[in-house]
Amino acid sequence: MFQRQLVKEKHDIESKHEPAGGISLQVEGVSKLYHGRTGAVQALLPVDLDVKPGEFVCLLGPSGCGKSTLLSIIAGLELPSSGQVRANGKLIQGPGTDRVLLFQDAALFPWLDVLRNVEFGLRQAGVPPKERTEQARHFLELVHLHGFEKSYVHQLSGGMRQRVAIARALALNPAILLMDEPFGALDALTRDRLQAELEEIWSSTRKTILFVTHNVREAVALGDRVLVFAPRPGRIVREFRITLPRPRSLENYQLMEQASEILAVLKEAMGEVKHGESD
Ligand SMILES: Nc1ncnc2c1ncn2[C@@H]1O[C@H](COP(=O)(O)OP(=O)(O)OP(=O)(O)O)[C@@H](O)[C@H]1O
């Protein structure tokens, strides 16, 4: 009986987060030309991209090839110089609650404890106290941070901070998660673990995810698709569909083979061949 009640409560909390799944995204001829002090910079040549609801797309490339610019435009924080973006067919004209952008730096509030950090957006959205605490706890459990509700940011490791940031983003129930190198500052072991956790979360929530990374194996481990970018000017040079079964292991032979193939394309696009690099 008690068990049934628990399952029901879990279901009630989850159903408050409807729609749980992701939505589609259409990027149509989006380009960006910045006018800096040193002149114009073509950050991005026109990009066309169709992302299906619940798809996991990785944007892979070296520094300065326009990955963050594209994410900012999709987030509605930057205007494109040409083209447009639609989410579920609706023109994006600014930031919206259907999209959340996550960065390498978790950007948490140091004066709030973990629970209040996760509750923050819900409070802004006017969710009543009891309900927002319930929801924040639910998402903290999802990122394996049960028991750390009262901790402050300075008491957490880098990986834990990033988990809090993910819980905070999920609590807002976005349909699209825009992740800009979220694991870039973490040590290799923590990074592997968070990759696996993110894949689990994605499998259970079916959000649409755009994930920027410099790391080829990370991209192959996570993506349904990997888009390879090249710099000067920023552009997409190739697209790979990754059909390896999930969950994926970084040590899997086929994954490593696919990563080598993509790495070769990346190096060619950059016009250089360096040996022994992993990303
Ligand atoms: N606000 C800006 N004003 C002028 N130039 C900019 C601005 N933002 C980005 N750029 C330039 O646009 C280009 C693309 O930058 P962007 O940050 O999108 O690349 P990126 O692939 O995300 O790089 P990184 O991986 O280092 O974040 C770079 O040459 C960058 O210097």
UniProtKB/TrEMBL annotation:
Protein's UniProt keywords contain NADP:
no
Under PROSITE patterns, the record lists:
ABC_TRANSPORTER_1, ABC_TRANSPORTER_2
Q: Which UniProt keywords apply?
A: ATP-binding, Nucleotide-binding, Transport
Instruction: Output the InterPro entries linked to this UniProt entry.
Output: AAA+_ATPase, ABC_transporter-like_ATP-bd, ABC_transporter-like_CS, ABC_transporter_ATP-bind, P-loop_NTPase
The stretch of residues making up the signal peptide is none
Q: Which GO terms describe its molecular function?
A: ATP binding; ATP hydrolysis activity
Q: Which domain of life is it from?
A: Bacteria
SUPFAM superfamilies attached to this UniProt entry: P-loop containing nucleoside triphosphate hydrolases (SSF52540)
Where does the ABC transporter domain start and stop, copy by copy? 25-256
Extract the PANTHER family matched here: ALIPHATIC SULFONATES IMPORT ATP-BINDING PROTEIN SSUB (PTHR42788:SF13), TAURINE IMPORT ATP-BINDING PROTEIN-RELATED (PTHR42788)
- Protein name (Swiss-Prot/TrEMBL): NitT/TauT family transport system ATP-binding protein
Species of origin reads: Thermosporothrix hazakensis
